[in-house]
Amino acid sequence: MRSLPVVFKAAFFIFAGILKAMCGRYALTQNESELIEEFAITGILPNFDPLPANWNIKPTEEIYIIRNNEDNRELATTSWGIIAPWSKSDVEALRSQSQAINARSESIHEKPTFRNAFKSRRCLIPATGYYEWATELGKYKTKQPVFISNESEKPLAFAGIYEKWISPNGEIKESAAIITREAVAGLAKVHHRMPVFLPKDRWDSWLDKKNNEIAKVRSLMEVAEPAAGLRFWPVSDAVNSIRNNGVELINEIELGEPETLF
Question: Which of 100, 111, 177, 253 lies 20 to 30 Å from 132, alpha-carbon distance?
Fold first, then answer.
């Protein structure tokens, strides 16, 4: 690593974060008008710059989040991966992002990178669906990409948090992370982790900045059937490359006979 330029070192850490993280890529194809309607959004920041449809969102990329801002439920953009508050340079910030795209629901209230945001800066992160790479737990070969989405075709609502960081030159940068939990039901045979999905009747309480009692906030993530209404299917290895982007990435593929040792 010592012989690599700084920019390549940063890229390496991002790639390493993708490989080891649960929910390391996702897709969002609904536009801002559809999100405004689905999530009952009443406010948008000045100079709002809409994001294009994206079938292969990667860490550190700009994403949509939904949060409360005064009396409004606001649609905003931020980068994916929480920047550690103690980062002292842009390079350190980028590196910390790649390592904090997900926050574990079991320990989010304790971890220094996440605990302050969890208390008062919670958000929803909308997604058409997300990709997971199969482990040895189920019928798919290891590292087989799988796409998970909503049976109703409505966007998913990941539980998330966001944070602010001020760079050495005074620039304010916002960043966000997806909260994950132990996988259940059919998803547990794909991977051992899954995002925390929040049902609509919990959105108001989750986004309420005044709701900062940790036990109550944690209870909002406890859902009777966390994987209800989800469907998933195998997709092409093309999603492995961040250069690839298009609707073909989520097309179901046919798999051959499973490999066995005998």
Answer: 111
